[in-house]
Design brief:
The complex is a heterodimer of chains A (293) and B (240). By secondary structure, chain A is of the alpha+beta class. Chain A has one domain. Chain A has 8 helices and 15 strands. Chain B is mainly beta and 240 residues long. Chain B has a single domain, classed as Alpha-Beta Plaits, CATH 3.30.70.2660. Classes of the chains: A alpha+beta (293), B mainly beta (240). Chains A and B meet through helix 1, strand 5, helix 3 and helix 8 of A and strand 3, helix 2, strand 4, strand 5 and strand 6 of B.
């Protein structure tokens, strides 16, 4: 049903922090050796989940299993307060093969109802292997085309959080904060969509379409003070006629090059400062390139 | 030394072959483990009749590490809650709240890796011609075909691969290096049908209970080559 697709996703950020590094006081992630910026696979997957949760309003079969409370409205949040996730293996009555069969049914049910489970997979608290779902969609780390420069901005706030602070300042009520942005960064991520795993989890054409939509629009619904302006710039898909593939992914990825535009000088500050070239000459048989964005 | 029938070059920007003793804050081994190498071969071609055996690992780059800390969730999906939700008896909507179930975990991962995996396979069904499986693997590897995208330890570190014809290129690494004890592979021992309670897993084809035990080996790298001892792969039960 779903073909094998290898894709390249380009997105950029202007005066924002695309993905903070918890190890570096929330500075934008950077490859320490090359200075190139990084955005993790899980960061992108989080945004896909949030987008789908939002546009499909958490309705089956597009529910989202791994949610962020911050993106739900407060009414929901209150109703969900009680929910813990106890690891409650002891209450299961079935054993052995019967249990394995039951686990399989559970897994299928989870795939059927939850978009993120059938797209990215999930691990259930069961001892046997059937509790593990490998999703058809696989992302790699995104890295920036050029080294990035983090800027630190000191910001002031005209209010304090506690009474004690207010007293200490004798009514002046000013605190300083720090904010990190990068002036501009163009990031490239690679992804793979696998027909065999799609068949296993029931990831169908509608899901695929929704996934592309998410990549095209997810930054629109993820605005925040930290992110600045993030936007997708290109989504290039290599579709294979054969489910196993018609060409090595590395050879296909090499066909898409992003270089600095020769007519511009100085550090890149917009997507127009780059040339995106897609080499469509002598494509291997069975490969179709499409640029969705 | 004769080379194995199958040699596959694999490479990628990052890799994480987690040491089992440091898997909360993941710390990668210096090199790919035989079990991760087997996973790559299986991602390209595998049938229940085929058991992959990794014989040698060639390392082409000096191991270099980098650090990656990510926000991860602490829990797995709850099977009990899923079961209740399935039956309609779970009061709350089924979900896992990532921001309330956080673990920040650092991973010490490898960067810029390149290996050649030398392997052979044992046929568990001797009615099958060896050439059939060999050629199927070869064809796929040459064309860049795979059942699912192979990866270097974890799925976010996808890897590329290429079939290696002829002699295996020499590694620029020289000298002898003791990499200490490494995970070799998991041994899947079939249990009797009555031993389901002791089972760690079930064979996905025969549905028979299996005992799964990790096998370790002393990894010595000589001029960039690690010999994988054959005792890691006890002959498995023939598939009926």
């Amino acid at each position: 049903m779903i073909p094998r697709i290898d894709f390249i996703y380009l997105f950029d950020v202007k005066h924002g922090n695309p993905n903070g590094d918890p190890d570096a006081g929330n500075l934008p992630r950077v490859d320490p050796e090359t200075g190139h910026g990084l955005v993790t696979d899980v960061c992108l997957k989080r945004k896909v989940r949030n987008y789908v949760g939002l546009v499909r309003e958490e309705q089956p079969p597009f529910e989202i299993y791994v949610k962020e409370k911050a993106v739900l409205n407060s009414q929901h949040a209150r109703a969900y307060e009680a929910l813990g996730i106890p690891v409650d293996e002891k209450k299961r009555k079935s054993k052995g093969e019967k249990k394995a069969e039951e686990d399989k049914q559970l897994t299928e049910w989870m795939c059927k109802n939850f978009f993120d489970v059938r797209t990215f997979g999930a691990v259930m608290t069961t001892k046997v292997n059937c509790g593990q779902v490998r999703g058809p969609v696989q992302f790699t780390l995104a890295s920036s085309m050029d080294p990035i420069v983090s800027q630190e901005h000191a910001v002031t706030r005209c209010a304090v959080t506690t009474e004690k602070e207010a007293e200490a300042q004798s009514g002046d009520n000013r605190t300083m904060g720090r904010k990190f942005t990068i002036p501009y960064g163009l990031y490239r991520a690679h992804g793979f969509i696998n027909p065999h795993l799609a068949a296993k989890t029931g990831f169908g054409p509608d899901d695929l379409e929704l996934f592309w939509k998410a990549l095209e629009q997810m930054f629109e619904t993820d605005r925040s003070a930290a992110r600045g302006e993030m936007a997708p710039q290109a989504l290039i898909c290599f579709e294979h006629a054969d489910a196993l593939g018609n060409a090595p992914a590395n050879k296909l990825f090499q066909r898409v090059t992003v270089t600095r535009n020769q007519s511009t000088e100085g550090p890149a500050r917009s997507f127009a400062d780059y040339d995106l070239r897609i080499d469509e000459a002598e494509l291997p048989t069975g490969i179709t390139i499409s640029r969705r964005l | 030394m004769t080379r194995s029938p199958i040699a596959l070059r694999v490479w990628g920007d990052y890799a994480c072959f987690s040491r089992p003793e440091c898997k909360v804050e993941r710390l990668s081994y210096d090199v790919i483990t035989p079990s991760a190498a087997r996973g790559i071969l299986e991602a390209i071609y595998w049938k229940p009749q085929v058991q992959w055996i990794v014989e040698r690992i060639h390392v082409y780059r000096e191991p270099e590490f980098t650090n990656l800390r990510r926000n991860e969730v602490a829990s797995k999906a709850s099977a009990t809650n899923a079961q209740k939700a399935m039956k309609g008896t779970l009061a709350e909507p089924l979900a896992l709240y990532a921001d309330e179930d956080r673990q920040q975990r650092a991973a010490t991962i490898l960067r810029d890796v390149e290996y050649i995996i030398e392997a052979r396979f044992d046929l568990l069904d001797d009615r099958d011609p060896v050439a059939k499986h060999y050629n199927m693997f070869k064809r796929r590897a040459e064309k860049g075909q795979c059942f699912h995208r192979p990866y270097l330890g974890t799925r976010e570190f996808a890897c590329h691969f290429a079939w290696v014809e002829g002699p295996i290129p020499e590694s620029p690494l020289t000298g002898e290096r003791d990499l200490s004890w490494m995970l070799g592979d998991m041994a899947y021992t079939p249990l009797g049908d009555k031993q389901v309670k002791q089972a760690d897993s079930f064979c996905s084809h025969t549905r028979r209970p299996l005992k799964v035990e990790p096998q370790f080996f002393r990894a010595i790298m000589r001029d960039g080559v690690i010999e994988v001892p054959s005792h890691l792969y006890a002959p498995a039960e023939v598939t009926p």
